[in-house]
Write a structure and sequence with these properties.
Number of strands: 4
Largest sheet: 4 strands, antiparallel
Helix content: 25-40%
Number of domains: 2
Structural class: alpha+beta
Length: 111
């Protein structure tokens, strides 16, 4: 197996990929070691939502469906909407009229 990646998500993805195909005892023991290494690796700093007034998302921040010309990213909608509940939506910025902040498509937003 390749050297350990410092990226926590990459390590987890490698583990899941390996677990699909490997069943030998040695490989499972090695995967357990890799899982321990992944869990011991501190997660990256959380991404901070970017105000739309500061910068709009670019193509590198968005996920494009095949053949699409407009990409989607995470858009934060403030409390005024949805009966007083703030929420994140994954959609093209052009479709959203109430958003105030955004995150890249590969981020995992949290309240």
């Amino acid at each position: 197996m390749a050297d350990l990646s410092p990226d926590f998500r990459a390590l987890c993805a490698e583990l899941l990929d390996e677990l699909q195909y490997q069943t030998s005892y040695e490989t499972n023991a090695e995967l357990q070691d890799r899982a321990r290494a992944a869990l011991a690796t501190p997660p990256p700093e959380p991404l901070r939502p970017i105000p739309l007034s500061e910068r709009l998302p670019g193509p590198e921040d968005c996920l494009f469906n095949p053949g699409a010309t407009i990409g989607s990213c995470w858009i934060f909608n403030p409390i005024e909407g949805a009966g007083g509940i703030a929420w994140w939506s994954f959609e093209p910025l052009e479709w959203n009229e109430s958003g105030t902040h955004w995150l890249p498509a590969n981020a995992i937003p949290h309240a």
